[in-house]
Write a structure and sequence with these properties.
The protein is α/β, with parallel strands linked by helices. The chain has one domain: 5'-nuclease (Rossmann fold), CATH 3.40.50.1010. It is built from eight helices and four strands. Strands 3-2-1-4 form a four-stranded parallel sheet, sandwiched between helices. Helix 1 crosses helix 5 and helix 6 crosses helix 7. The longest helix is centred in the middle third of the chain and has 13 residues. The two termini are 20 Å apart.
Length: 138
């Protein structure tokens, strides 16, 4: 099963377990974790917030991000057809447009989206999107 990881899951993995998403989140081994390359831009954008939240220095944060990237398969959003982008934009419009790359990749790969953003989930469900990954909690 392919699961698209959004930025809030990545942030959680970094701050919770030093970037080891499998330790922080504990998905089953049968789950292939993927992310759009756009996630790097989001991580960079929120770098200072991550440093403040974790209390780490730049080197420690860099190691955590590197560890995170070893557990994710990155997909180039340029491979997503324009029609899929348009559908993702329609779904995200009025909800949260910055999540469009995650939705586009989820649609394109026929995957599930892993997010803890309840507002996003509610907005997408109202528009007919209900392809969410819900991990089993210990």
């Amino acid at each position: 099963m392919r699961v698209i990881v959004d930025a809030n899951i990545a942030f959680r993995a970094i701050s919770g377990q030093g970037g080891d998403i499998r330790l922080a989140i504990r998905p089953p081994a049968t789950v292939e974790l993927c992310a759009p390359s756009f996630i790097f831009a989001e991580l960079f954008k929120h770098k200072e917030r991550l440093l403040r939240h974790t209390g780490w220095d730049n080197e420690t944060l860099t190691r955590a991000v590197h560890l995170l990237t070893t557990h994710l398969r990155f997909e180039n959003e340029a491979a997503v057809p324009i029609g899929t982008w348009m559908e993702a934009h329609r779904l995200c419009h009025g909800v949260d447009l910055k999540d469009t790359p995650y939705i586009a990749l989820t649609l394109h790969m026929e995957a599930l989206l892993w997010t803890e953003d309840e507002e996003l989930k509610t907005g997408l469900r109202a528009k007919g999107f209900d392809r969410f990954y819900e991990p089993r909690r210990p």
